[in-house]
Amino acid sequence: MELDGPVTAGVGARRGTPADEILRLLDEALAAAGLDRSHLGRLATLDTRAGEPGPVAAAAALGVPLTGYPAAVLAAVDVPHPSAAVAAAVGTPSVAEAAALAGLPGGRLVAPKRASARATVALAAVPAAAAPTATPTTAPVTAATAAAAIRPGVPT
């Protein structure tokens, strides 16, 4: 899939998950999607995990921002692999996939969730075909608009 813009990595992690575990899992997901760290634009997670040392250090190591979303926002995102266990634990049926997709209008999963012992990651981006295209607009040039462009602030 050709992408229009950077990839967002959604991260679900238990409290105390170290950055190296998140980074290892992220590298596996990127490689499986034919991507590498240079494609990342940000990490996203549950707001209650956004201050945890592991996700914070992972984002710092990658040089990308970390965005935290409330459980209610993540719960409203349609995902292919919801989990009743995750919903019971944190109030949303998905963290990694939902966080990857949140804030990406037209975004799609590039890689579904992938889990380690204490973390889960998923990748999302906007496919090039889904990116809105700008339509240039032009107005006719008249003597008055040309004069105004040449002499701004002077009435015509």
Automatic annotation (TrEMBL):
Pfam families: CbiG_C
Record domain CobE/GbiG C-terminal: where: 8-124
Domain of life: Bacteria
UniProt protein name: Cobalamin biosynthesis protein
